[in-house]
Amino acid sequence: MHTTTPLEALTARIGAVGSAVVAFSGGVDSSLVAAVAARALGPRALAVTAVSSALATGELEGARAVAASVGIAHEVVDTAELAREGYRRNDRFRCYHCKSELYDRLDELAARRGYAAVLSGANADDTGDWRPGLRAAAEHGVRHPLLEAGLGKEAVRALARALAVPSAEKPASPCLASRLPYGTPVSAATLERVDRAELALKRLGYEVLRVRHHGRLGRVQLAAEELVRVGDPGERAAVVAAVRAAGYDQVEIDEQPFRSGSLNLPITPVERSR
User: Fold this and answer.
1) H or E element: which one contains 29?
2) Which of 50, 75, 86, 270 stands the most exposed, by the fewest C-beta atoms within 10 Å?
3) Where does the Asparagine synthetase domain start and stop, copy by copy (predicted)?
4) Per residue in 220-251, pLDDT tens?
């Protein structure tokens, strides 16, 4: 008797919606959803990337390349998170306001163009972190095929590799506002400064990194394997100079390896349940 594979199950799940807009960042999760949607829905699938001040340099170009590779139609929408006071305030519900803006735009597009559903790349592991954006998704009726299928990040990467999705190994790259501690107001100027600093470090050859914004101070976080490089005095000086040139008066290099979602760690279980 044939046992349904995870890919077959995911393809059937996405195919059942009939037509869909995929919220598409170009990261591995949304790329897998887009790749499977292209297989299951063909021309009835559309990948849409949101462009705003919070999108890091190079991410849009990367998304376009992935969309072309997996064979899904791709478009761009402008979003205006910064027009929302709740987003600018940057409390622990910032992502709710960001995703509300995104899904408002995608809902409008889907309704205008006759798509039956909006799909996201949320996966099963996302339920274990602070994700107020999932509440916004629920309010908009967004479907999460990876989460619904019980697929976590490792399973997602495995399927992406099997389909030769170019972003299968791509490190997570959340919006630039995630570099600001909660309570630090979000502005276009601050996002631009963070973007300049991270881009400068990428040009030095660093790949997995964050520049955390603390006013005049930029705190650099690097992956464990890349922390070894800055043990060299010349390399450390180059990193510091690059971040200063981006607009930070003071620069610190975190001795602890980069950990995704580290700014969410202080959130208590009570706050997580809100």
Assistant:
1) helix 28-41
2) 270
3) 19-125
4) 999 998 999 999 999 999 999 999 999 999 99
